[in-house]
What we know:
By secondary structure, the chain is an alpha/beta fold. It has one domain: Alpha-Beta Barrel (TIM Barrel). Helix content is about 40%, strand content about 15%. The protein contains 11 helices and 8 strands. It has helices at about 15-25, 35-45, 50-60, 80-90, 110-125, 140-150, 165-170, 200-210, 225-235, 245-250, 255-265, and strands at about 5, 30-35, 60-70, 95, 130, 155-160, 185-190, 240. The chain has an 8-stranded parallel sheet with strand order 1-8-7-6-5-4-3-2. Helix 1 (about 15-25) crosses helix 11 (about 255-265) and helix 5 (about 110-125) packs across helix 6 (about 140-150). The longest helix has 16 residues, at about 110-125. The model has no long low-confidence stretch (mean pLDDT about 95).
Amino acid sequence: MSHPPYLCTGTLGRVPWDDKARAASAAGFARLSIYGWEHRKLHERGWDDAAVVNLLKELSLRVAEYDGVVMTMRSPEGAEDAVASAAALGARSITVLEHSDWQPGEHREQAAATLAEIADEAADHGILALIEPFSWSPLDDHRVAAEIVERAGRPNAGLLLDTWHLWRGPERGQVDPAIDPAMIKAIQIGDTGADPVGQPTPDEIAHECIHHRLMPGEGHGNIAGLLADLFDRGVDAPVAVEVFSDDLNALETHVAARQSMECFAKLAL
C-alpha cells in the first residue's frame, strides 16, 4: 500500500474532534477525516481555524475528507462554503453525497454538471471532489457514480469507495472491472455481518450501518481480498478505517483508535 493508513472520524464516535485527533495521532495515523458538523462544533467551543491547524501541526496530522458537506447532487448550493472550510483545514478532499430523494441515476447529465461545478471550486484549492455511493441512497451504485464522474470530466473528481456500502449495495461486494481504477481516489474499509434474511428496508440497512459495522477482517466482506484485487487493477488510493459500531464506541477513544490501526497489520496491508 503506497499511502499511509488513515482514520475516519465516525469510527471514534461522537467525542470532541480534538480528542479524536490526539487519539488518532497516538495510534500512528497520518490523517483523520472531519465532518462539517464537527468543524462547526469546534468553532462553537472557541476553536478558530488557525488553532485547529496548529493542533494538526503539533500532532503531525492532516485532514483527510471534509465529510458530509454536499447533501444533494441536484445543485452545488452550499459547496462553495464547504470547499472554503475544507481548504482552511488543508483537507485532501470533500465528500459529495446524495441524501435527498432526487435520483442522480435518472438525471446523470445534471448530476455531472453539479459535480463539475463542485470540482472546479475545489480545484482552486487543490482539493478532490469525491462521490461516495451509499447503500440506502438513490445513488447506491458505483457504476452509476463512475459514469457521472466520467461525464463531469474533471481530473480532481472521483469516487470514494466504502467497502461496507459496496457489500450492502446492488454490487454485492464486486467492483465492476469497467470502472477506471484511476477514478477510485479513496477507500474506506469496514466489514459486514452475514447477509440479512429477506430484503432489508432502507431503515434497517441504515441502522446496521450506523450501529453494527465490524472491524475489517472480522466479518464476511473479504476486505483483504477486495483490496488486493483493487491494487492489482492499478488503484492507487489511501485506505481508511470507517467502522460505526456501538461496541467500538463503548471503548476509550485511544483504544478504539489503536484497534483501528491494528486491523491494517491483521489484513497485511
